[in-house]
Amino acid sequence: MLKAETAGKAPRTSLHGHWSSRMAFILAVTGSAVGLGDFWKFPYITGENGGGAFVIVYLFCVFLIGMPVMMSEILIGRRGRRNPVATMALLGEEEGSSRHWSLIGGVGVIAGMLILSYYSVIAGWTIAYTLKSVSGSFVGRSAEDIEGIFSAFTGNWLSVGIAHTIFMALTIFVVARGVERGLEQAVRFMVPALFVLMLFLLGYSINSGHFAEGAAFMLTPKFDALTWDGVLVAMGQAFFTLSIGMGAVMAYGAYLPAESSITSAAAAVVVADTTLSMLAGLVIFPLVFANGLNPGHGPGLVFVTLPLAFGQMSGGVVFATIFFVLLIFAAWTSSIGLMEPAVAWAVEHFHKTRAQAATMIGILIWAVGFGTVFSFNVLADVKFLKGTFFENVDHLTSNIMLPLGGVFVTVFAAWVMCRNSSADELGGTGPIYNLWRFLARYVAPVAIVFVFVKAIGLLPDLS
Ligand code: TRP
């Protein structure tokens, strides 16, 4: 998918070649965005934070913060055409600021590794659930049985650890071979397939008899159910689900041909990802109410609701298997994006081959992942700060490191870079450029810092 550039149109060429087309780039970014964040995380944190008001804050964050941050990341990536650490150093110098902007790239590399350490564990659950689906474990089971299957599985650290190991090996394998081949095919097929499958499941949950209740939970804003901590979680989710704030999109942007529109590429990714998250919620919440489950069930929510529904429908074994296989692919195209900045950096910094870098970094991430494996069994009662080890890593990365990365990325693109540079990348200074610049200069950084300060409790509550 990456090909060496022949036309000398770009101001600078990437060391690694370019995407064969804008579509290839959109597919790669969509593949990184669409993942466990949409189908696993979005429903369960929406449930934990009371529904409607949380979803509205999340949508505001996606469009007013996520969109300008994503555009900033892509334009920085394309202008620098290096790995995120080197790109930030290069542009920092070029724009008359400092090479130390590379630190932002470095924090992103670490954030990606930390996210992958737990992402791989949950992706392992989807592997195990594929096997359970094939063997018909969910057929005709009650809500209680399905809950029992979930807690028996996650309670056994060895099975969870093995599944995590398998997923990490799959990720290392693809990253070591180079991400270009395979990825495009996987995404081209997977995203439409997930979309169709979600529409099918939507039909099922509309007929569950509790659709109105589920939809109302998700769409009726009850702001008294939302705390500032919930607002922080909604904002963190906007970053997590769009894969922004850690340099992944920047790394992919480095291979984008000079003439492709960044704005329309970002818009396509944001719309596709947001649609899938909303569909996931509209499928899951009616099923939650139809089966008398608790929306605040936590990380097991999708692993309980959907198997229950599949177990009741005819042909459920087939649909369950297709769903969990697609989820493995969705997680896989995301996990390689999470690892890419670290591997690209290690290849250049330590002069290793891709295979060596992917293996070393992969083993490190795998080991850290055992903190999350144990968070659901042997160490489930060891809680500090935000809860278990898993909850702390998730909070630190999604709710702190990614939004903080977003502040620096927008400040860099909209304040440090000169107007000519950013206008050059965004295709001139029309109304869309002005809107981006306004959001990136004022709205996004101010909103992020404000939410931080409120959630940490530094500002008095006026309500
Ligand atoms: N967006 C992914 C998901 O929703 C998770 C993710 C966060 C990610 N940051 C990323 C994926 C960076 C690839 C690259 O599941």
Structural description of this entry:
This protein is mostly helical and about 475 residues long. The chain has helices spanning about 20-35, 35-50, 50-80, 85-95, 100-135, 145-155, 155-175, 180-205, 210-220, 230-240, 250-255, 260-290, 300-310, 315-350, 355-375, 390-415, 420-425, 430-455; strands spanning about 1-5, 20. Strands 1-2 form a two-stranded antiparallel sheet. It is globular and about 65 Å long. Tryptophan binds near residues 33, 35, 38, 241 and 246. Tryptophan (TRP) binds near residues 248 and 338.
Give a short synopsis of this structure.
This protein has 463 residues and is mainly alpha-helical. It contains 18 helices and two strands. The protein has helices spanning 22-33, 36-48, 52-80, 84-94, 102-134, 143-154, 157-177, 180-206, 211-219, 228-242, 248-253, 262-290, 301-312, 316-350, 354-375, 389-416, 419-426, 431-456; strands at residues 2-3, 18-19.
Query: How far apart are the termini?
Result: 53 Å
Give me the number of helical elements: 18
What number of structural domains do the residues give?
A: 1
Q: State which percent range the strand residues make up.
A: under 5%
Bound molecules: tryptophan
What structural class do the secondary elements suggest? mainly alpha
Would you spell out the secondary-structure blueprint of this structure?
Blueprint: E1 2-3, E2 18-19, H1 22-33, H2 36-48, H3 52-80, H4 84-94, H5 102-134, H6 143-154, H7 157-177, H8 180-206, H9 211-219, H10 228-242, H11 248-253, H12 262-290, H13 301-312, H14 316-350, H15 354-375, H16 389-416, H17 419-426, H18 431-456
Antiparallel strand pairs: 1-2
Helix pairs in contact: 1-8, 1-12, 1-14, 2-10, 2-12, 3-4, 3-9, 3-10, 3-12, 3-16, 3-17, 3-18, 4-5, 5-7, 5-14, 5-15, 5-16, 6-13, 7-14, 7-15, 8-12, 8-14, 9-12, 10-16, 10-18, 13-14, 14-15, 16-18
